[in-house]
Amino acid sequence: MELTLNRKTRTQVSTIGELNIDGKFECFILEDRDRGLQPTMSLSEINNLKVHGETCIPPGRYEIVISFSDRFNKLLPLLLDVPCFAGIRIHSGNAAKDTEGCLLPGQTKGTDFVGGSRLAFNSLFSKLKAASKTEKVFITIK
Fold this sequence. Notes:
- With 142 residues, the chain is an alpha+beta fold.
- The chain has one domain (2-141).
- The chain has two helices and nine strands, in the order βββαβββββαβ.
- The strands form two sheets. Strands 5-4-9-1-2-3-6 form a seven-stranded mixed sheet, with helices on one face.
- It is globular, with a radius of gyration of 14 Å.
């Protein structure tokens, strides 16, 4: 399964994009602020620009696995091998204060806000769980 996140709106607080699954719109995604991280940067360059808990991850292609989150005490999607980041998950939430680099799905969007996050997450998670049983799941963030 291939997911594509096209980042569309950047503010001083958050980044909001559109998530597609195999080319079809699924939901909006809210992330932390975009600080210009690029996959071509060295790890030290990324670390110098990154503000812990307030920076969206670099664009790139990442594998997603379903694993147990000790923090949330349940199974959640996890992005693997994100440079200079650990524990980047997809989970429900509405604003940048609800994430530390993670991706927050929503059915609606506003300025620095996504709504209907639990419903959007549940729909997305069921698709990711089903696909992960038979194939690898990847997300490309642009």
